[in-house]
Amino acid sequence: MPSQQVEVINNVGLHATPLALFVSKARTFSETTIRVRRGEREADGKSLIGLLTLEALKGTTIEIRTEGPQAEEALRSLAEMVASGFTMRP
């Protein structure tokens, strides 16, 4: 299961608007499982509500893990989105 740690750099952290972009992109990888972890908390990368529970503020490091046929592509795309401060669009 590929994984990558990424620092949240955008000012609002993983809040509703950036997470909507993340979830939209994650859902394009329909056959790939995407999990996001912050500390002991973990959420489905395709669930806006689940990701909001991570409470990842600016400066927080999260881990994105993917599994499935498009795991590498999904991981690269989502990690780049977070690392760019969500300036990359889905």
Q: TL;DR?
A:
The protein has 90 residues and is an alpha+beta fold.
Number of separate strands = 4
| Helix-strand topology string | EHEEHEH
Domain count, please report it: 1
Q: Would you tell me the overall average pLDDT?
A: 95
Within the CATH hierarchy, at the fold level, what is the topology?
A: Histidine-containing Protein, Chain: A
Report how far the terminal alpha carbons are from each other.
Answer: 23 Å
Low-confidence stretches: none
> How large is the radius of gyration?
11 Å
Query: How many DSSP H or I helices?
Result: 3
The global form is: globular
Main beta-sheet annotation: 4 strands, antiparallel
CATH class annotation: Alpha Beta
Kindly report the name of the CATH homologous superfamily.
HPr-like
Describe this structure in words.
The protein starts with a strand and ends in a 7-residue tail after the last helix. By secondary structure, the protein is α+β, with helices and mostly antiparallel strands. The protein is globular, with a radius of gyration of 11 Å. The longest helix has 13 residues, at 71-83. It has a four-stranded antiparallel beta sheet with strand order 1-4-2-3. It has helices at residues 16-26, 48-52, 71-83; strands spanning 3-7, 33-38, 41-44, 61-67. Helix content is 32%, strand content 24%. It has one domain: HPr-like (Histidine-containing Protein, Chain: A). It has three helices and four strands; from the N terminus they run βαββαβα.
